[in-house]
Specification:
Helices cover 39% and strands 16% of the residues. It is of the alpha/beta class and 449 residues long.
């Protein structure tokens, strides 16, 4: 590796970073992270912080899980790569597909299609949903429904069902036939409804109306995150996902649960859908499937979907895939990661530590009136909405948000900004003491504002 002077001089000079302005990053160089251990990261200046972002919602096992690292290293020597396109496979791909199927058996998932990440997984679900209906003799079912504030990756299909215009406007026109329902976001919604159960009923009515307007026979699938992550950690009422499931069933619409963030213990259970007692038809997953140690995702299907493909004639062929689908090194990472996830029972730590973080922020809200709303309480997902006027719910300006971020980092914790939201998704192995460090750093960050 080049020395520190080289790294500083070339930082953001040649590399365009995701989710950032390339001109701004050239003049305000991003933090260079040099190493990580446990739940902490260390930058080029030797400053160590608790990683309250968990990489990007993904480092569930922390940075020091040697079982996963060793599995990756061994597989690199045994078989560093081979294609999984029809006609060839590899031992770890077979083992990984079995492990994932077993992990989500309670959710009704029985088939696995490996991808390179979450955006790929969403794209796969959308494409296969259209093909499913075509195979069933309903080729006009091409449209998709989703939620405003939902996040489903950055491919053209995922961006089209995304519910945040930041990921859409500069890339339009996107995929036609995508329609967005209001979000179950009690703090801000078009009904000015603060009761979660009532809001769920109102959104269900909007959904029914939209289906009637579009024609049920034109809609392929509805996609939603069981808890909306990047949109601000929006937790729906316990009835919400079930209402959506019932509507989908009555109108022959597939339900896709986007579990890229919420899967593998993040919510305090192995899938987000289990919190709400719902079994989707398809699931998109990634992130925690390898704890971020290797880029892998997976699209999962239940028997209802699988049977249509597997009993179809030539049209059932899946002419979709990625060079790195079922990559042997990635598959080895999946097998090791899921074994460690179960061994450590990370969901059992995510619950109490998430409650500790959520309740700690609630106490901070008693002292800082810039905290407008706190969302979470289901595992290690917490969103804090920052406002300049609590009564008017005026979103805080970005200059102040960046000041909060900087002060929090200097106090020993990395958090993530999502416009006027602070988003936190620390490793699922985080300790009680480390959560207290997060809360103390947030205290200093809010004081700086």
């Amino acid at each position: 590796m080049k020395d520190d002077n080289f790294l500083r001089a070339n930082n953001a000079q040649h590399l365009w970073h995701p989710m950032g302005h390339p001109g701004d990053l050239r003049s305000h160089a991003p933090t260079i992270i040099m190493k990580a251990e446990g739940s902490s990261i260390t930058d080029i200046d030797g400053h160590s912080t608790v990683d309250a972002v968990g990489g990007l919602w993904c480092v569930n096992l922390g940075y020091s899980n040697n079982a996963v690292k060793d599995a990756i290293a061994k597989q690199l020597y045994d078989l560093p790569y081979y294609s999984a396109f029809a006609g060839s496979t590899n031992p770890m791909a077979i083992e990984a597909s079995y492990a994932v199927r077993e992990f989500f058996a309670e959710d009704g998932m029985t088939r696995v299609f490996f991808t390179s990440g979450g955006s790929d997984s969403v794209e796969t679900c959308l494409r296969l949903a259209r093909q499913y209906h075509r195979l069933r003799g309903e080729p006009n079912r091409t449209k998709f429904l989703s939620l405003k504030k939902g996040y489903h990756g950055t491919h053209f299909g995922g961006a089209s069902v995304n519910g945040n215009n930041r990921f859409r406007i500069n890339y339009e026109p996107l995929l036609p036939g995508c329609f967005h329902m209001p979000s179950p976001y009690t703090y801000r919604n078009p009904f000015n409804e603060t009761d979660p159960a009532t809001l769920a009923q109102k959104i269900a009515a909007v959904m029914e109306d939209e289906i009637a307007f579009q024609g049920a026979g034109s809609i392929a699938a509805f996609i939603m995150e069981p808890i909306l992550g990047a949109g601000g950690v929006i937790v729906p009422d316990a009835s919400f996902m079930g209402l959506m499931r019932d509507i989908c069933d009555r109108h022959g619409i597939l339900m896709i649960a986007d579990e890229v963030i919420t899967g593998f213990g993040r919510t305090g259970d192995w899938s987000g859908a289990r919190h709400w007692g719902v079994k989707p038809d398809m699931m998109s997953t990634a992130k925690g499937i390898t704890s971020g140690y290797f880029p892998v995702g997976a699209a999962l299907m239940n028997d209802k979907v699988a049977d249509v493909f597997e009993t179809a004639g030539e049209a059932g062929g899946i002419f979709h895939g990625y060079t790195y689908s079922a990559h042997p090194v990635g598959a080895a990472a999946v097998v090791a990661c899921l074994a460690e996830t179960l061994r450590l029972d990370t969901k059992s730590n995510a619950g109490p530590r998430g409650t500790q973080l959520y309740e700690g922020v609630q106490k901070l809200a008693e002292r800082y009136d810039i905290i407008g709303d706190i969302r979470g309480g289901h595992g290690l997902m917490t969103g804090i909405e920052i406002v300049s006027d609590r009564a008017k719910k005026t979103p805080m300006d970005m200059a102040t948000m960046k000041r909060i971020h900087k002060a929090t980092y200097e106090a020993g914790v990395m958090v993530r900004l999502g416009m006027n939201n602070i988003l936190m998704s620390p490793p699922l192995v985080i300790t009680e003491d480390e959560v207290n460090v997060i809360l103390a750093a947030l205290d200093k960050g809010f004081a700086a504002a």
